[in-house]
Amino acid sequence: MTQGTPPPPTNKVEALSPSDSNSGFKWWTKTLQYKTGLGMSQDDKNQYETILKLKKDKENCKSCVEHRDWMMKYSPMVIFMLDQINKSNGYVSKNKISCNICDTPKYGGFHPEFGIELCANYINGDKWILNDTLSHELIHWYDNTRFNVDWTDLKHHACSEIRAASLSGECAIMTEFSRQMGMMRFAKGHQTCVKRKAVLSVIGHPKCKDKQHAESVVNEVFRSCFNDTRPFEMIYR
């Protein structure tokens, strides 16, 4: 997942609704024709696929908003980060966390002016992907509030991506191996996961030349940024 700087939120939810003429029996008939390929022109198929996408996008946006609101009330990680941002003289309002349909494949992004964008069409209704994504972006928000990050600086960007990947829980799947492989292998696996995600994010930075450049920058700042677990006392996941 590339955690790049998103464009200004577009709030496309309300625009995503198919025509009422495609409801009921007529819609069922079109669905049957589409599935069987009988009695349907290519133009009709294209129109049907467009309507299906709009319906799915609307469902995903609705689900995204519901899950966002739930996480802001009940997710320990999200609540903790919101509190830490407040303690750093920042404030996260709900209207600064938008659910949108994204053109670029990613789960979300943070912009210091526009806030957090959650990509409903790539999160695809998964409550726990949204939780990890929102946690990731809130760590960026915390860094921006607490440390005055220069997002145009590749090293600054890489450092925040390392911290967000490490602290958000995105690499928590590695804990499943810890019981069998021991903590030393778990630690190594966690770091590998964090590096991979940070590199993928840094590749999307305008000043990054290529993957090799991203890897070089991430490796340069990795040790100090990975070891900086603020606002946590340590890595718990």
TrEMBL record:
Gene Ontology CC annotations of this record: mitochondrial inner membrane
Pro residues composition bias: residue spans: 1-10
Annotated region (Disordered), positions in chain: 1-21
Keywords of the record: Hydrolase, Membrane, Metal-binding, Metalloprotease, Mitochondrion, Mitochondrion inner membrane, Protease
Main location: mitochondrion
Coiled coil: none
PANTHER family attached to this UniProt entry: MITOCHONDRIAL INNER MEMBRANE PROTEASE, MITOCHONDRIAL INNER MEMBRANE PROTEASE ATP23 HOMOLOG
Name assigned to this protein: Mitochondrial inner membrane protease ATP23
Organism: [Candida] arabinofermentans NRRL YB-2248
